[in-house]
Amino acid sequence: MTKIIPIAITILRLDEKYLLLKRRNPPYENLWSLVGGKVDIGEHIPSAAIREVMEETGATTISGYTLKGIVSERLVSPTGSLQAHFIIFVGDAHIDSFTPSHQEGDMALFTHDQINDMEGKILPSDYEMFKRFNSQSHDNLAYHEAELVQEDGVYHLNYYREVMH
Q: For an engineered disulfide with 105, which of 24, 44, 94, 135 has Cβ 3.0 to 4.6 Å away?
């Protein structure tokens, strides 16, 4: 049986650019993604997000962390069988620096326009999260649902939708 895996990811800003990670490991290997990882048992979401950012980027200062939304993301096979289910807590923050390479993958800075042109090179659900949560005001916490289909190492977005609550 597949377990639900809590993940904290963060839209990271450095000056006027955004930091993305090109993943080395499955799932989603060779795709650019937002920075983050699993929430440990007993860990609160902001603490997990900040820990993951510091571990993966080498940043010495993380400021302005804000939780922006929650995404329930399912990864399914082409036949519809569930491979993984992630509950993703999406935040944003500013960092002061980063190390360009980490065991999880290589990192690079991109402008907003560059990310908008990265469709197909960025994890499809992270692309949607960036577009939706990067521009969202801090007034409301949004909840979204996504489903990715993995077929022969390629990930297709079956759906990505905001759920009103």
A: 24
